[in-house]
Amino acid sequence: MRYLTSGESHGPQLTVIIEGVPANLKIDVNDINEEMFKRQGGYGRGRRMQIEKDSVEIVSGVRHGYTLGSPITLIVTNDDFKHWRKIMGADALTEEEQENMKRVITKPRPGHADLVGGMKYNHRDLRNVLERSSARETAARVAVGAVSKILLKALDINIFSRVIEIGGIKDDYEYTLEEVKANIDHNDVRCINDEVAEKMRNRIDQAKKDGDSIGGIVEVVVENMPAGIGSYVHYDRKLDGRLSQAVVSINAFKGVSFGEGFKVAEKPGSEIQDEIAYNKDIGYYRLSNHLGGFEGGMSNGMPIVINGAMKPIPTLYKPLNSVDIESKEDYKATIERSDSCAVPAASVVCEHVVAFEIAKAIMEEYQSNHIDQLQDAVKNHRNWNLNF
Ligand SMILES: Cc1cc2nc3c(=O)[nH]c(=O)nc-3n(C[C@H](O)[C@H](O)[C@H](O)COP(=O)(O)O)c2cc1C
Ligand SMILES: C=C(O[C@@H]1CC(C(=O)O)=C[C@@H](OP(=O)(O)O)[C@H]1O)C(=O)O
């Protein structure tokens, strides 16, 4: 499977083409839109998200609700475009009118792509960078992930996500997977503990009041993954490595870890390696899951547990020092309309980029043209693992 997205943040639409989804998979656009809606929301988002009504239109690859095996094209309309038509140069204007309408940006925001992107592509109007570096693109990635999740669900593989830290407020209770699943999407910060969620909301309010922004940590879990997806034989077939790339490719994500993460560096091996056991009904399993479901770049059959760390949002209402690229003088960075915290939304993005990577790895392992063939292949592999 592969995909490409296109679209500017304030352009008419985002477009994504997904290739490699097997034929005859039932796709309900409402299932995709439910995921889109989760990403759009979340406490701490700015005014843009009140304007958009993120929903997907399927324009190819699906007929009467079933995939054809041909490329699937999805479109997400930007409702805000109607306010940006002139700024985006979509209307026929004289050159002078055009120049006045551009809302040129020359004061780059520290932490955003503005300055380096301008230098790289020779854009003296940094809006030309912002339009594509914006996390608006993550709406298209969630649409891809939503299709991937439908595929994985047909194989009994479930993926879910939650927020475990915002601006230093941590939900560090140890929950069972069942507790996590029962409380997922529990509230508008996507933290399953209501008391901690309230503290997170207060922390976000404080940051907003201070003209500041905050980051946090999200967790994604993949349940019921067959053992042996990915491979130890080459660096680029190691699935934990591929998932790491995918997670850090999300805007503002600066770190990724599996299972206990960086704690593995402090603890002795006896507390970190997950001991092996066998039961004839479920096959091999581990007595713990410190390593988060990976050994040798392969899934080991335990739940895959991934954490992603998001930095604070770069645009500050109390802007930081910057330099105007025209005058080269010191100025405060440009203030753009912005979120103050997007960690809840980012947890949904993280879940969906993981869903795509998992689906891609599954399709590589069990190359199949249609869903029945794929379901048989996965079933056979699970049986093989059971009897090994
Ligand atoms: C869901 C989501 C929403 C975001 N919203 C904003 C925002 O409103 N303002 C902003 O400056 N950055 C926002 N960001 C972060 C920037 O897009 C990101 O920091 C920027 O593209 C630079 O990339 P880097 O942080 O990965 O280096 C958001 C990120 C995500 C994942
Ligand atoms: C549009 C989205 O997020 C945007 C991500 C973003 C950024 O700089 O990354 C800046 C803001 O955009 P705007 O300047 O239009 O207010 C966010 O709203 C979205 O998530 O759909």
Automatic annotation (TrEMBL):
Cofactors named for this entry: FMNH2
Family as reported in the entry's similarity comment: Belongs to the chorismate synthase family.
NCBIfam families the UniProt entry points to: aroC, PRK05382.1
UniProt-recorded name of the protein: Chorismate synthase
Annotated organism of origin: Mammaliicoccus stepanovicii
Matching PANTHER family: CHORISMATE SYNTHASE
Keywords: Amino-acid biosynthesis, Aromatic amino acid biosynthesis, FAD, Flavoprotein, FMN, Lyase, NADP
Annotated binding of FMN, by residue: R132, S133, S134, N251, A252, G296, K311, P312, I313, P314, T315, R337
Catalytic activity, as annotated: 5-O-(1-carboxyvinyl)-3-phosphoshikimate = chorismate + phosphate
Residues engaged in binding NADP(+): R39, R45
